[in-house]
Design a protein that fits this description.
The protein is α/β, with parallel strands linked by helices and 324 residues long. The chain has two domains: 147 residues, Quinone Oxidoreductase, Chain A, domain 1, CATH 3.90.180.10; 144 residues, Rossmann fold, CATH 3.40.50. 29% of the residues lie in helices and 27% in strands. Helix 2 packs across helix 3 and helix 2 packs across helix 8. The radius of gyration is 20 Å and the shape is globular. 45% of the residues are buried. This is NADPH:quinone reductase.
């Protein structure tokens, strides 16, 4: 029997239940994996709450890392015992899960299970944000909201590696120190009485930033747009504070011919080759030392509801994972 965490209906963290089901099987094109760690992400909370349409009950989660314990007959190139990580296997809050073989990362020696579980969604997201949605170049300036969050810490390191100047926003002084530790050049607290756009303008001699990376959504969207330079880019990749209200596209013209994109990871890992290229940059960063993955919080599988509360309450830094 496999232990799993289900969302029994749409709602808050209280709808999560730990239960047992029959062991899953590796279907066509799949690997059966013993889960060593499962990643927790905001998209899990969107699906649990009903913001993203889902069937209920459903087993929560889509990201994790572990060892292969069975290989489907039509899958080649994998063996029992291989270490893998993934971002696209529904039902990953579990002790065992079936994972699409064409969407896994091969985990190199020297990378822990915890770090491996932290890499797929947040790591690949940070990588495509820095190199795909807006290709950062030396001398550019980037604004990154939630700079001490999982994506924020990784994106800051990637941006610095690519030669950009980084300005981040955070919610506490403790998080400010974490953001500076990741390489941020300027860090300031957002909240009541703080004019984000005015602060960014002051830090850029009135010019604004080349790109604003916004995973917060409703609470920061207008400030992000107002922080851009002429022909700057706003990359909206999440909605931690809620979805952005309907938007008049003419604002992009009147604000300086700016660009707005709403990407997601699925459009940037459309083939095993692209996935390998993006993950290769991350693993290279780990091996050569310019990239550090911070696992900030670990919860037992049975405490998934508490983990969701901590994430949604913005009480976390770095990656949050579950340990079966």
């Amino acid at each position: 029997m496999a232990h799993v965490v289900q969302a029994i209906e749409a709602g808050g963290p209280e709808v999560l239940r730990c239960t047992e089901i029959d062991d899953p099987q590796a279907g066509p094109g799949e690997l059966l994996v013993e889960v060593a760690a499962a990643g927790i992400n905001f998209i899990d909370t969107y699906r649990r709450s009903g913001l993203y349409p889902m069937e209920f009950p459903h087993i929560v989660g889509s990201e994790g890392a572990g060892r292969v314990i069975a290989v489907a007959d039509d899958v080649t190139g994998f063996s029992v015992g291989d270490r893998v990580a993934w971002h696209n296997a529904p039902g990953s809050y579990a002790t065992r899960v079936a994972v699409p073989a064409d969407g896994v990362l091969r985990v190199p020696e020297g990378v822990s299970d915890e770090v491996a579980a932290a890499i797929p969604l947040q790591g690949l997201t940070a990588q495509y944000l820095a190199t795909g949605s807006h290709r950062l170049e030396p001398g550019q300036t980037a604004l990154i909201h939630a700079g001490a969050g999982g994506v924020g810490l990784l994106l800051t390191q990637l941006a610095k590696h690519l030669g950009a100047r980084v300005i981040t926003t955070v919610s506490t002084e403790e998080k400010a120190e974490l953001s500076r530790g990741a390489g941020a050049d300027e860090v300031f607290l957002y909240g009541e009485g703080i004019d984000i756009a005015a602060t960014v303008r002051e830090l850029t001699d009135g010019e604004g930033v080349d790109v604003a990376y916004d995973g917060v959504g409703r609470d920061t969207f207008d400030a992000s747009l107002a922080s851009l330079k002429v022909r700057g880019s706003l990359v909206l990749f999440g909605a931690a504070s809620g979805p952005v209200e309907p938007f008049d596209i003419q604002r992009l013209n009147s604000s300086g011919g700016q660009f707005l994109s709403r990407p997601s990871l699925q459009w940037f890992v459309r083939s095993p080759e692209e996935l390998a290229e993006r993950s290769g940059m991350l693993f290279d960063g780990l091996s050569t030392g310019w990239l550090d993955f911070r696992v900030g919080h670990e919860f037992p599988l049975a405490e998934a509801a508490e983990a969701h509360r901590a994430l949604e309450g913005r009480k976390t830094t770095g990656k949050v994972i579950l340990k079966p």
